[in-house]
Specification:
The complex is a heterodimer of chains A (488) and B (353). With 488 residues, chain A is of the alpha+beta class. The longest helix of chain A has 18 residues. The longest helix of chain B has 15 residues.
């Protein structure tokens, strides 16, 4: 019997405590941060090192058993949702920082190392790892690589793809490749940029066993300016004006009034509740640089019609201004039983049109919607509030969200800026890409994974799958895992 | 119109076993895979023009046949730049050639490589299909990052027709400091000064001197210049342009009889004499790129040094054969690359990488 053989073989390559097959032991793995999608895997494997991991993959390949890889499971798009026929491969036990080179500004780490643990480990050298997804205290670097995670500082400091130098990857055949290098070239002369392709591939191309990250010298100072505006249009225009002034702020975030009201009741960040929108603009660098930039930013904001501007005077105040923005998701969860979080990116100039359209749709569907926005890079997170216990609200919220995402694509944007496609937005991929591009993506997958065993059914839809939109939902009955984490 | 013509041309070549060679001005032909002798020329300069440029969006969308100089002119007028400082290597260089070769200039260690700024890319592949990947927004994780894969693919996947790049503002202020320094000390200084959060945007050691370009907010540049010391370099914009374009005397007369070898290595790798004297070497990219005027006979030893120091070596100008230009890849990676090539160009219309 094949299954028995498989489990027997698995127990030959992994120690007993690295395999879980009982339902109660597998329950913690049944979903990621997108808790509405749940399933128990065939089994859970927790290799302790690369050799074990490669042996598990090779075994699965021989038995044609699919694999779903998982880091900390904080993802918001169901990318790590198990498949009943697949082995769930957790990198949680591979959590060693292997090497830090403070002069070269690099660190070599195992995939299960938490994002924030890297910055903590290198802080003594005045360095940090720049991408800062809001789940950074829990999420792992392996998961960040799979999702190409961002954060609030990515306009200036880039996404994961800009901050990873090299990967060791186990292919589905069990072969190990290295992509990228310890130099600045992502590829050897005569090679294709497989490193770029691997980052954000959502566990469909290979399993990362080692990541060399680029570290960034820590700025001496950061200060944030908080500005109030009488309309979202005026706030949107102010963002354009900051960029037009040649300033790339360390962070540039916007919230509408519904969002500020929600968070103010939650964290008391000191937001101006008379404003229709507020902007948070962070400057970092040397004290001289920051003083100069904050002065220029304040001028621009005033000329753009800011009704009030406050500048953080110390680190505690800076963190307080940010706390509201960082807690927008949980705060929305407190004022509404359920919400859908959308993750579209739009060209910034389309912001007034998109926000007006969202307001119109809010009226049409009779559902409130708070808007938080990575204004610098155009990544919009409308939070559609609903109550799943009221008949029809869930369906209305789904239709509302569908219209918002179609709108993002229509104005030249994308269905997902940073949360990934996973299982959640699999159908919306069909709106954004034509069958010929999707076919090419499948061919690319086959170049790495001939038998479609890695995370099957995720990220790239099969052509016959283009059906209805899926969305993130957080229900009262089933709290989101890591509900305490800050979310962007 | 042009694209339809190319699609028809490619389909015809595919059906008849024909070969095509994609070409802009040919400025980077010396560092690209050679076309088949029977290949028909496909000139991308027929497809030129800025499609969309709104500086406040920090995005420029251009047809690939557009002259790189024209793109830079338009962006400079708006106070912006392509921060990877693409080398032209010739007066007619196109943005498509820059994209296909994937080369980055002196700012690379500090701002990022060309591929880091690619937001989206369109390609007519070897089946004649016109495909669009990525987009024109800053953050986009929908689907595989094929746009970045196409950057640096040297026209082996198909004709790149349009590209969207992220733009950055030109620095408010810039100056270059020059230091009389030995090669060993220069490597250490480049790395130390960067790790100490100085606003460095380029650093080169050549001919016994270290050139460090500082750029950014005026107060930060002024302070860093005071802290680091050294002498100011007059007309530094011109010096850096010459350096980027390999017009500096160090690069003079590179050809098969006197090749230019490029070594990509860990930035902190200690100066390696590599047997030809310090005057035959220049250190670029904060230590991560080293240029050698050495005989290609020395290439195996240089490659071994590069490998031990985390990178690669290739003959950049004056390669006698492909083996000098490209590095051997591990077998597992070769398999993946061949399948990628097969997917985009199953009939072998375009050259191999």
């Amino acid at each position: 019997m094949q299954a028995a053989n498989f489990f027997e073989a698995l127990s030959n390559v992994l120690p007993p405590d690295c395999i879980k097959t009982a339902a109660e032991d597998m329950r913690p793995y049944e979903c990621d941060g997108l808790s509405m999608y749940r399933a128990l895997p065939k089994c859970v494997a927790l290799p302790e090192n690369e050799a074990q991991l490669a042996a598990v993959v090779k075994l699965c390949h021989a038995h044609r058993i699919p694999i779903v890889a998982r880091g900390a499971g904080t993802g918001l798009s169901g990318g790590a949702m198990p498949d009943p026929n697949a082995l769930l491969l957790s990198t949680a036990k591979m959590m060693r920082i292997l090497d830090v080179d403070p002069l070269a500004c690099t660190a070599r780490v195992q995939p299960g190392v938490r994002n924030l643990a890297i910055s903590e480990a290198v802080a003594v050298h005045g360095l940090y790892y720049a991408p800062d997804p809001s789940s950074q205290i829990a999420c792992t670097i392996g998961g960040n690589v799979a999702e190409n995670s961002g954060g609030v500082h990515c306009l200036k400091y880039g996404l994961t793809v800009h901050n990873v130098r090299k990967l060791r990857v186990v292919l589905m055949t069990g072969e190990i490749i290295e992509v990228g290098s310890d130099s600045l070239d992502s590829v050897a002369p005569g090679g294709y940029d497989v490193l770029a392709l691997m980052i954000g591939s959502e566990g469909l191309l290979g399993i990362v066993t080692e990541v060399t990250v680029k570290l960034t010298p820590k700025p001496q100072l950061a200060q944030v300016a908080m500005a109030s505006f009488a309309s979202v249009e005026a706030a949107g225009a102010a963002v354009g004006a900051i960029i037009a002034a040649g300033i790339i702020p360390g962070g540039l975030e916007m919230m509408d009034r519904i969002a500020t009201e929600a968070v103010e009741g939650f964290v008391h960040a000191g937001y101006d509740l008379t404003a229709e929108a507020i902007l948070l603009c962070e400057s970092d660098g040397t004290p001289e640089e920051v003083a100069d930039e904050i002065a220029r930013v304040s001028d621009v904001l005033r000329q753009a019609g800011a009704t009030d501007i406050k500048v953080s005077q110390n680190e505690a105040e800076r963190l307080r201004y940010w706390s509201g923005r960082k807690n927008a998701f949980p705060a929305t969860g407190r004022i509404s039983p359920d919400y859908y979080c959308m993750d579209g990116t739009i060209p910034r100039k389309e912001l007034p049109r998109v926000l007006n359209e969202i307001a119109r749709l809010s009226g049409k569907y009779g559902l409130r919607c708070a808007n938080v926005f990575h204004a610098g890079d155009g990544n919009l997170h409308p939070l559609i509030m609903f109550d799943a216990n009221v008949p029809g609200e869930l369906e209305r919220a789904e239709e509302f969200g569908a219209e918002v995402l179609e709108l993002c694509v229509e104005v030249g944007g994308t269905i997902t800026g940073e949360h990934g496609v996973g299982i959640e937005k699999i159908n919306q991929m069909c709106v954004q890409f034509s069958p010929k591009e999707l076919t090419r993506m499948h061919e690319i997958k086959h170049a790495f994974d001939e038998h479609t065993l890695l995370n099957p059914g995720k990220a790239v839809p099969t052509l016959h799958r283009c059906a209805e939109f899926g969305k993130m939902r957080v229900t009262r009955g089933k709290p989101m895992p890591f509900a305490e984490l800050e979310r962007f | 119109m042009t694209i339809e013509t190319w699609q028809a041309q490619i389909k015809q070549a595919a059906a008849r076993g024909g070969k095509l060679a994609i070409r802009g001005s040919g400025s980077k032909a010396f560092c690209s895979p050679p076309a088949s002798p029977t290949a028909v020329l496909l000139d991308i300069r027929a497809h030129a023009g800025v499609v969309e440029y709104e500086p406040n969006e920090l995005v420029i969308v251009v047809r690939t046949g557009t002259a790189l100089a024209e793109v830079e002119r338009v962006m400079t007028a708006a106070g912006q730049m392509l921060a990877f400082e693409a080398p032209h290597f010739g007066p007619g260089a196109t943005i498509g050639g820059a994209l296909a070769s994937g080369l980055s200039g002196p700012r690379r260690p500090y701002a990022g490589a060309l591929r880091d700024f690619v937001l989206g890319c369109k390609v007519v592949d070897g089946k004649g299909e016109h495909l669009a990947f990525g987009g024109k927004v800053m953050k986009n994780v929908a689907g595989f990052d094929v746009a970045r894969l196409l950057a640096g693919s040297h026209g082996t996947f198909g004709v790149l027709t349009e590209v969207a790049f992220k733009c950055l503002p030109l620095p408010q202020s810039q100056q270059t400091r020059v230091f009389e320094l030995g090669a060993e000390d220069a490597v250490v200084a480049m790395n130390r000064w960067y790790a100490a959060a100085n606003p460095i945007t380029a650093s080169v050691w050549v001919g016994g001197r270290l050139y460090v370009r500082l750029a950014g907010a005026e107060p930060a540049v002024r302070l860093a210049a005071t802290n680091l010391g050294g002498e100011a370099l007059a007309d530094d914009a011109r010096w850096w342009r010459d350096w980027r374009e390999q017009g500096h005397p160090f690069f003079a007369a590179s050809d098969a009889s006197s090749p230019l070898i490029r070594v990509s290595c860990k930035a902190t790798a200690a100066f390696g004499d590599l047997g030809n004297g310090a005057e035959k070497q220049a250190i670029d990219w904060g230590g991560a790129q080293r240029w050698l005027r050495a005989s290609s006979v020395a290439l195996p030893a240089i490659r071994e040094w590069a490998r031990a120091n985390g990178g690669f070596a290739q003959v950049f100008r004056g390669a006698a054969h492909e083996g000098e230009r490209v590095s051997p890849l591990p077998a597992a990676l070769v398999g993946v690359q061949q399948k990628l090539k097969q997917s985009f160009d199953p009939y072998g219309v375009f050259p191999n990488l």
